[in-house]
Write a structure and sequence with these properties.
The chain has 26 helices and 13 strands. By secondary structure, the protein is α+β, with helices and mostly antiparallel strands. The strands form three sheets. Strands 5, 6, 7, 8, 9, 10 and 11 form a seven-stranded mixed β-sheet that branches. Strands 1-2-3-4 form a four-stranded mixed β-sheet, with helices on both faces. Helix 8 packs across helix 11, helix 19 packs across helix 21 and helix 19 crosses helix 23.
């Protein structure tokens, strides 16, 4: 079978090194518009011979969400469904992950994932947990039942361990059909092209330079009928659909349904209503509105909750607020979707996109031929999933690499949003003197370390040398990659054999793209990472990696001493690297 999703996946050669996790990472990037999926993969993937049935644990503190996922890639595409037994193992995964008691008999790398998860839960920054099973076969009722069991177990463990936290839990099977629909939705903002006529109590229009909107109230019976007729196609502007009445102590969707059934006249007052993109609208006669096309941007949960109420319990007198927006400009449409969709909250980086430094950097990157740097302004999901992978560099990855290289790995790992939100931190990470060439220098270092981990992960465990086992285990610890960037940044004078007055001036002599820059780093990174498992371990095996600044400083100092003592042994490697660098 070759469909639009499979074609898109085939084009994503940058994801090939992740093997059977390629589809899983594609699904994650598609769902949340992640600019640099490789940095996320380096931390979030837990797939190994002893992964305790968890292939991926994505903890997004800024987005207030956690994704726990299992992936499966069938060779025989004629099979009627994915193995339900593999879905059932998600129950095992959530049992050890969400239990507040530290699990026994799991590798240190997985303990790191457990620690980071519970640090986020203790901080009460998580509002949503999703349990995914991603595969390339048809969806089935048997599989979704197993996922629901895992979701229920997750909810119960969270209620026991964190009774004060308000966290919704849902389960999703992303098989061939569901993931294809999500992908196609990302390409076409409006899938429902019918013309509808609605009796409305009144309406008024608002206009912008590239859009026109009509505001009114629509009967919930009309919204109910549209959901029953078109279901998920209504939500084509949103990559994710209605999540169902998922379990939580105060689940919003359950609350909407209760209001519809028990207080129908209060639905309008208690609910924000819907915002939808349309091809056209017009008022025909006083109270008759005609719209053509319908794609709900905000209000998927409202619509799905109403559409899931038994038909006999829908009041004919109940209404919800509705905004219908007509816009033909693709960039404006993407912005409307991004800023209205609660599943894609405004990121801190969005607010710096018009900053003078960011505008200058965007121009410099364009001159370098490095794509993807947008100064913090995000495109839609369709942008990031199409973008070629090897020569791209996102603003958020750049901020992480800059922070880590210049001695703030804790900020790079735990406080990514603060880099953009707080002027003091932003000016330190992005000073006036920073250049695109320097960002390529430090970000390609981080990319090289991520690549080294990926290369080690493709070696059969039975064929690994002990040094490779030790390094892979260390690189699998949460926070290890940004700590390695800081440690290597701390020995930059040793590497190039001269004093450097301004570390922000470090750059490659030639205008290298990202793949060439990674190649320049590879020999020296391979040499330096040999010291990491022994010298850089302590700051990572705590309940909150990298937060103990004294432990980080001590480890980096020890690393630097080891590198200096081995300088003669690595003389040729260092001198060869120095030939590529200027400052």
């Amino acid at each position: 079978m070759t469909d639009s999703l499979e074609v898109a996946l085939q084009k994503r050669l940058d994801l090939d090194p992740y093997g059977s996790n390629k589809r899983l990472l594609f699904a994650l990037q598609l769902a949340f518009g992640i600019e640099d999926i490789h940095s996320i993969a380096a931390t979030a993937l837990t797939d190994s011979s002893n992964d305790k049935a968890c292939d991926l644990l994505y903890i997004d503190r800024e987005g207030e969400r956690v994704i726990i996922a299992q992936g499966y890639e069938a060779q025989n595409l004629d099979r009627p469904q994915a193995p339900s037994g593999k879905a059932a193992t998600l129950h095992q995964a959530v049992n050890w992950l969400f239990s507040k008691k530290q699990p026994e008999s799991v590798p240190e790398t997985l303990l790191g994932a457990w620690r980071e998860l519970h640090d986020a839960l203790e901080s009460n920054v998580i509002r949503e947990v999703e349990v995914w099973y991603v595969h390339n076969l048809p969806e089935s009722r048997q599989v979704i039942q197993e996922i629901n069991v895992a979701s229920e177990a997750t909810f119960n463990l969270l209620r026991q361990g964190y009774p004060e936290n308000e966290i919704s839990v849902s389960g999703t099977e992303l098989g061939r059909t569901a993931l294809t629909r999500r992908y196609e939705n990302s390409q076409a903002p409006i899938l429902v092209t019918d013309t509808f006529r609605i009796e409305v109590p009144g309406a008024f229009e608002e206009r912008g330079t590239k859009w026109t909107a009509l505001c009114t109230s629509v009967p919930i019976r009309w919204l109910y009928d549209r959901y029953r007729q078109h279901e998920a196609d209504l939500f084509s502007p949103n990559v994710r659909d209605y999540l169902g009445s998922s379990r939580s102590k105060s689940n919003i969707n359950n609350g909407i349904q209760e209001t519809v059934r028990e207080q129908p006249t209060n639905v309008w007052a208690y609910n924000n209503g819907i915002t939808a993109l349309v091809h056209d609208f017009r008022i025909i006669d006083g109270g008759l509105l005609e719209i053509t096309g319908l794609g709900i941007v905000n209000g998927a949960q409202t619509t799905g909750a109403i559409g899931s109420v038994p038909p006999g319990e829908i009041s004919m007198d109940s209404h919800v607020l509705a905004r219908f927006i007509r816009c033909d400009d693709p960039e404006t449409v993407r912005s409307i979707v991004r800023f209205n969709n609660r599943q894609n909250p405004t990121r801190a980086a969005d607010f710096r996109s018009n900053d003078a430094i960011q505008r200058r950097l965007v121009e410099e990157f364009n001159q370098l031929g490095v794509i993807g740097y947008n100064g913090g302004r995000r495109g839609g999901a369709e942008d990031v999933i199409r973008r070629p992978g090897e020569n791209q560099l996102s603003a958020e990855a750049a901020a992480q690499a800059l922070a880590a290289f210049h001695g703030a790995s804790h900020t790079a790992y735990h406080e990514k949003s603060k880099i953009w939100e707080q002027d003091e931190i932003y000016s330190r990470i992005f000073p006036e003197r920073v250049t695109a060439e320097h960002i390529v220098f430090v970000t390609s270092l981080m990319r090289t370390i991520e690549t080294e981990k990926s290369k080690l992960g493709r070696i059969d465990t039975a064929e690994m040398l002990q040094d490779q086992v030790d390094l892979f285990d260390w690189l699998s610890l949460r926070g290890s990659i940004v700590l390695a960037v800081e440690a290597i940044g701390a020995v930059h004078e040793t590497l190039i054999g001269t004093a450097v007055a301004n570390p922000h001036a470090l750059q490659f002599k030639k205008k290298l793209n990202m793949p060439k820059a990674v190649q320049a780093w590879e020999p020296v990174v391979e040499s330096l990472l040999a010291f990491a498992p022994d010298q850089l371990r302590e700051p990572l095996v705590t309940s909150s990696p990298l937060r103990n600044r004294a432990a980080v400083d001590k480890a980096v100092k020890s690393f630097r001493a080891q590198v200096n003592s081995a300088r003669k042994h690595s003389k040729d490697t260092f001198e060869a690297f120095a030939q590529h660098v200027r400052h």
